[in-house]
Amino acid sequence: MTSITGDLQRIKDDFSEQLRGADSSEELQTVKVAFLGKKSALTSLLKRLGSLPADERPAAGEAVNSLRDSIEAAILEKKAAIEEEESAADELKNLVDVTLPARGRGWGGIHPVAQLTQDVVEILAGIGFSVALGPEIEDDFHNFEALNIPASHPARDMQDTFYFPDGHLLRTHTSPVQVRAMLKHGAPIRIVCPGKVYRRDSDPTHSPMFHQLEGLLVEKDISVADMKGCLEVLMEGIFSRPLKSRYRASYFPFTEPSLELDIECVECSGRNPSCRICKGTGWLEVAGMGMVHPNVLRNGGIDPAVYNGFAWGLGLDRIAMLKYRLTDLRVLFEGNVPYLLSGRV
Ligand SMILES: [Zn+2]
What we know:
Blueprint: H1 5-21, H2 25-36, H3 41-48, H4 57-93, H5 112-125, E1 130-131, E2 137-138, H6 140-143, E3 169-170, H7 175-185, E4 189-198, E5 209-219, H8 224-239, E6 245-252, E7 255-264, E8 283-292, H9 294-299, E9 308-315, H10 316-324, H11 331-334, H12 337-342
Parallel strand pairs: 1-4
Antiparallel strand pairs: 2-3, 4-5, 5-9, 6-7, 7-8, 8-9
The chain binds zinc ion.
Residues 265, 267-268, 272, 275, 277-278 line the site of zinc ion.
């Protein structure tokens, strides 16, 4: 035994204890520096070897180097174990537990008004109509004047129309699209114009922005019977069944004669005197229409002596409420997806 045996044993015991306490790569690195670094007890022991008696030196040197080797080996072994543990923990963090219940997914749906618009366009495409679109910011000519709406007409009232300071306005109906289409394409023409329109109204049954859909057909020798036939095809297509209809005389500046279409109540077919949809009348107002006024044709660049035709307009929001049994118009504008989906039949 040499005189450094006690020192070696102490270092060995210290090392064993500290190694046991090192649980991470950082802690292990600290232990490594403490026991193998330049300032470690082992290094200073090595320096002391020269001062030992010559016959002790070889055995002492061997003992120091052997401890050094075993410390290095122990650190390497522990390092491998710690790295394995750490990578397993990392993996666990990113692991997908396939036994957990799914979080669920918010399924979207087509908005009732968009769905209805698609349906109507498709029905009318079957009888030769194509879609025409126009700007929502209009001028006085296309929104009023060309449609035979004189300056004194109540529709021009500031109460009803959103005006811009420069005289432009938010279109109050989709009819300006008809004017633009006639001026662009002339006759014959069959178009359907869906879109947003704006009026200064806001209450449970009116929204300042709502959706209209208009149709225009201008050809030769068109009669009121053609118009009725077209609207019946449309209504039957929308509600997927034949419905009784009736027409009432009405007035619009841009048509002459003008009519309003009622269909039988889609809820009760007139059989429930306390029906909340038709209020017991058995009828629902669904569209305004008429034979296009000669002035409107003229303003659209079409000769009323050669061509005539009809136009109609309907409120898509109201029809969507009827078709999908919605009870409050405002849900169409509030984006409450669960309600919109659950309210549909
Ligand atoms: Zn009813």
